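Repro:
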Amino acid sequence: MDGFQFHLPLILIVLATSVGVLTTVYAAYYLNRYERTKQVVTFTVLATTITIWTFFALLQLTATTYGQSYWAYKMLHFGSFTTAPAVLLYGLSMGNARRWVNWKTTAVIVLLLSPVFVLLFTDPTPALFENPQLISFGAFSVIDHGNSLLYISYLSAFYIIATIGLSYIVYQTWSDQSLSPSQTAILVSAIFAPMLLSVAHTFSLLPFETPGTILTPTSFSVGMAGVGYAAFRYETFDTKALARSRTIENMREGYLLVDTTGRIIDANQSARSLLGVESPLTGMQLSDLIPTRDGQVLGEVETTPSFETQVEMGTETRTLEISSSNFTTQTDQTLGTLLVIQDITTRKQAQQQLEEQRNNLELLNQVLRHDIRNDLQVVAGYGDLLTDYVDEDGAEYLTTLRESANHSVELTKTARDMADVMLSREDAQPQGQVNLRNTLEQELEKIESEYPDAHIVVEGALPAVQIQANQMLDSVFRNLLSNAVQHNDKEVPEVSVSATTHDMRAVVRIADNGPGVPDSQKQEIFGEGEKGLDSSGTGLGLYLVQELVTHYGGEVWVEDNNPEGAVFAVELPLANTS
């Protein structure tokens, strides 16, 4: 290149420039591919400013004419004068002061730097330099000049700005234990050491002579390699760490990180909102927010049971569920505790509403069990007593009254059983062993008593096996037997009952000579509210059967009887008696 000549002693600054270019390119690539966090953006700006500084310093040192060397020297100040603000912004981005890293702050910095860049190009001599001239220094030539008071003032201001940025990094590490002290040590040393060297050269404090043009940018490039190492080593550019950070910050649940003394060292915005605290949570004691709990939460065990606490939010009381887990080193040393806070107010209100509904259901169940059922049985009993006192004209009406009363009693039993099923679901009552033969014989005896005109037979011996069920198994057979009689269109209903066992399963079949069930209704007949053929019932009986049998782990289905009628089959698991 005309007007420029490379010298071997410049190999160090070439390497420094290469480090800056590679770091800047990778940072720019990361910004383009992943999310633009403030820390990554400011690091990229810092890398760019130092690279500009080093690159134009290289051009200035290889220039062979005064005009080219002086132009490159002025251009390198675009990097050197912007490095200090970049250090400050990078420091601010690492802590709670990252809110200051915005376009307004950037605009102020640009406004303050603009006079410097204008003064660099004032003619015939810039106001910042005194008597600039090209002098020889070993194998190459450099620009030498005196420093005006304005130039020294600007340099001093920029060094102070950079020192503030580095001081904030140290302060943030001391106050926020989530930041790594090792990372801070590398960052501060990598930036402060070359800055101190630059100050010493500017004010002629070095014990040796060397052009600041080569010494300062080279030292800053080496330092920035340390910054880059700290950024990569401690996951500034790590996508997983970025994802974790963004997930925690944006999740609806509250997040608290507490050290072993109970002091909060990190928290997200949701935690502040859920706990009703307007000031930052960092630095507060956990016991100030959740009284008497920190001793239990910050125990030696890895996890502790979740617990509930209530927070007053104006006129509203909010219920929070807090779960915690300790995180430890590989040597099982506890470093702190992670707490996750969930607002369960809506869930608690729903549970309370369900509890009220459950209580109402229990009350209704008691009314069905006793009051209504007893009154209906009294009606049926007095109907039986009136048989001898009613003439032929009234006999039909009395029969209707008795049948309706008995049917109503059956409905109260079914409704009662349905209530028992729903209540047993909530109480999660365990199943046990129920004798199949005893249950069937008891229900057969009841149905024969209630329907003396029906012809009911048992085919073969009923197996005396134990079924995995509960006390409501009798409701299954009572409803199926009643259904076989009540929905029968014959003058004399015929019902046959049989039972077999195989492969740890028992199958009970209840056959009748009624109208049967069309194929199109064989599946739907067990649905809630479905009624049998020509039935005026509620349709709850067969639905109850389906619910109970399914709860026991069995199956129920309907088949065609030969030559007519229907067969309701129930398959139930045998209890393990070993």
